[in-house]
Amino acid sequence: MTAYTALLRGINVGGKNIVRMAELKELFEAIGLLKVQTYIQSGNVLFKSDEVQESLQKKIQQEFEGRFGFSSTVILRTAAQLEQIILNCPFSQEEIAEAELASEVESLYVALLSQIPPQERPECLEAYSSENDRYHIVGGEVFLLLRHSIRKSKLANNLQKLDAAATVRNWKTINKLVELAKAMNGK
């Protein structure tokens, strides 16, 4: 049985698309997923399943829209894939610390993509990269190091140009999800 984390895009943001985590948990249990638990209000759901990742993702998206009346992109990562995100961080501790000193908010984010972008697509982000907004694409993730608010970042606001659905989480959330996934696997 595989431990997964579902990361839902665009729920409970700015007072829109409100979904209570208890209702989200009920939905995942109703479709036969096991050991379901949620983490914070931004649409993070950990669970276990024997189903294949791609079909599971489609199933969750369809059931979600049927139950809540609006669509939400669902990005799935296994526990091992989440751990690999931590290992793949391209920014040094010094770079992260420097960015956090310049910013009053979180500086390191990861955009989790629905697919690896075609080779020519990453270049479209270069126009939005600067000393204040830097990125690295590693497989199906875009690591963002931002010296100012993510809401004001032209780089973060243009991720859709990669032609892949994405949802963004801050580094603290990614680390907590890894911790929870390890606990779910008994590690």
UniProtKB/TrEMBL annotation:
InterPro entries recorded: DUF1697 (IPR012545)
Protein name per its UniProtKB record: Cytoplasmic protein
Short name of one Pfam family: DUF1697
